[in-house]
Amino acid sequence: MNFTLFVTTIVTGLAFVGVVWVLAKLLAPRSYNAQKEEAFECGIPTRGTAYMQFRVGYYLFAILFLMFDVETMFLFPWAVVMRSLGPAGLLSVVFFLFILVLGLAYAWKKGALRWQ
Fold first, then answer.
1. Rounded distance between C-alpha atoms, residue 95 and residue 97, angstroms
2. Rounded-to-integer distance, Cα 73 and Cα 65, Å
């Protein structure tokens, strides 16, 4: 029974995506011109190649931001049910925050937060 429900859900989802994609291709307005094929950013035409290397520090900073952003998002559900969790819930969140602080201290020590 559960496998049938799973397969039915997957098939229904794929069919829905397919139907919406076909409808979008058939009903969407189209206009073709050479200007649409050009690279465009912030209203300023690009000069030279659009492919350039970025310092790895930018990626590291972005990954750290996402990591701490997502981890702090887990604190909201805990705050909502804090009283019903009792001391065990408090201890688990203190451990969670301890791990967050350790990660921040490690990134700080390695100089990942220094913008140069």
1. 5
2. 12
| Predicted pLDDT at 43 | 67
The CA-atom distances, in angstroms, between 13 and each of 6, 19, 26, 73 are: 11, 10, 20, 28
**Predicted confidence band of residue 21 (pLDDT cuts 50, 70, 90):** very high
pTM beyond 0.70? no
**CB within 8 Å of 38: residues ≥ 6 apart:** 45, 46
CA 71 – CA 93 distance, rounded (Å): 11
Contact status, residue 78 vs residue 93, Cβ threshold 8 Å = yes
Whether 15 has a pLDDT exceeding 90, the answer reads yes
41 pLDDT tier (thresholds 50, 70, 90): low
